[in-house]
Amino acid sequence: MQQIKVRAETADDLRAIDVVNLSAFQGEAEAQLIGELRKSSVFIPDLSLVAELNGRIVGHVVLTKVRFNSPKGGTEILALGPMSVVPSQSHRGIGSELIEAAVARAKPLCYTAIVVAGHPDYYLRFGFKPAKDWGVSCNLPIPEDALTAMELVDGALQGGGTVEYPDLFKALF
Ligand SMILES: CC(C)(COP(=O)(O)OP(=O)(O)OC[C@H]1O[C@@H](n2cnc3c(N)ncnc32)[C@H](O)[C@@H]1OP(=O)(O)O)[C@@H](O)C(=O)NCCC(=O)NCCS
Q1: Residues 55-73: what's their mean pLDDT?
Q2: Ligand 1 atom closest to Cα of 61?
Q3: pLDDT digits (tens, 9 = 90+) for 95-140
Q4: Which one of 60, 83, 91 would you pick to mutate in the ligand 1 pocket, going by the greatest count of ligand atoms within 8 A of its CB?
Q5: Where are the domains of the chain?
Q6: Does the N-terminal peptide bond of residue 143 adopt cis geometry, omega within 30 degrees of 0?
Q7: Which member of 31, 83, 113, 135 has the greatest number of CB atoms within 10 A?
Q8: Would the CB of 125 count as within 6 Å of ligand 1?
């Protein structure tokens, strides 16, 4: 079986990451968003991960900082996405490896929770749960069910609250 290697992006990977995103998504919005995120204060270089297959980048995921406003006060948590796998390599577990690696790398960085705005059926299998179960919503124009979340620290989302995505994300909608 071919070995998938997941690692943090480097400056040499940026074009290849664009290609992955342009091939996985319809249009340029996600590739452009990732470029903008990279220049912004919410970007965490260690949490922009590529999946390499035989030395070729075939997948990418990025986790960035988002504000979480709750009755307990404001804090920074992580938002996962955009995430992409080239169509020719999809359904082979590469997306799963990217998510598992992202969660594993986020934990030691002391963030308390991760949210995802995206296909809920996909993320629930990795331990994400409907965000509404905690009373957590977000400022993006997405259906309530499309927001899932995972606590990295028990109780982090207890009491609910609102996730404030940076305006950059609004270009996707
Ligand atoms: C979603 C994506 C990252 C999954 O990557 P992947 O490497 O194919 O994922 P895995 O192989 O680990 O898992 C595949 C499973 O994911 C599920 N899946 C894939 N796309 C899905 C989607 N859009 N909605 C719900 N589930 C999905 C399927 O159940 C699939 O299972 P199957 O192989 O038995 O059919 C990839 O399909 C992709 O890049 N899609 C286009 C971009 C996109 O939608 N990104 C996510 C934005 S939230």
Answers
A1: 97
A2: 3
A3: 999 999 999 999 999 999 999 999 999 999 999 999 999 999 999 9
A4: 91
A5: 4-172
A6: no
A7: 113
A8: no
Ligand 1: nearest atom to the Cα of 118 = 48
Write down the residue that tokens 């400022």 correspond to.
139
Name the residue type at position 18: D
Percent of the chain scored above 90 by pLDDT? 98
The CATH number of domain 4-172 is 3.40.630.30: yes
Please list, in sequence order, all residues whose beta carbon lies within 8 angstroms of the beta carbon of residue 48, skipping any fewer than 6 positions away: 8, 9, 17, 34, 38, 60, 61, 62, 63
Nearest CA to ligand 1 atom 43: 84
Residue 1 has pLDDT above 80, yes or no: no
104 Cβ contact partners less than 8 Å away, ≥ 6 residues apart: none
Res 2: pLDDT: 73
